[in-house]
Sequence to fold (202 residues):
Amino acid sequence: MSPGLTTAVWREALQRVAAKLEACADELNALDAQLGDGDLGVTMVRGGRAVLAELPGLPGDLGMAVVKCAQAFTKLSGSTYGTLLATGLMRVAKATNGRTEVPWSEVSSLLGDALAAMAQRSGGQLGEKTVLDALEAVRATTKGLDDPTALLAAADRATAECLERFRGQPARQGRARIFGDKSIGKDDPGMVALQRMIEALK
Fold:
């Protein structure tokens, strides 16, 4: 097992994620239709396919590899969620630029960097029932972990608990906030999308 995150590991992970997004596209579209435009699944599939096309030519420099994937994803995804993900990835790319391997123990810190960039770009805050809350839950629960299996198990558990915690709350950010109390009892589509991506990595 790799002692850290490399371009080879990154490539394999994205292949799994893209396949998972293809499989759950209808689910994400249906969830998004309740609180938004109903095209989250389409957005993620398009972005995933664009990333897949970049994988064969990714460089050994992990930061540059992440940059190329972020650029490919945002070019074809064409949505607020896609832009946010790309923003987070760009921050991760900056933090890993010039490195060929990153220890698993740094994953939590990198998630924190991504979260900060995404919050700044969106103007969102924690507690508003968005993907930011799920990302923060994953960051917090993976802090100090240096084994990828344990890290993914913790991330999976954190996203599930976050969804449960916010399900009974109204959405307070993005298009979903328009629905007010009608959003109570419904899962945030962005959180679910993150959960599915983590499931793919397990």
Notes: The chain is about 70% helix and 0% strand. The longest strand covers residues 4-5. The chain has one domain: 4-201.
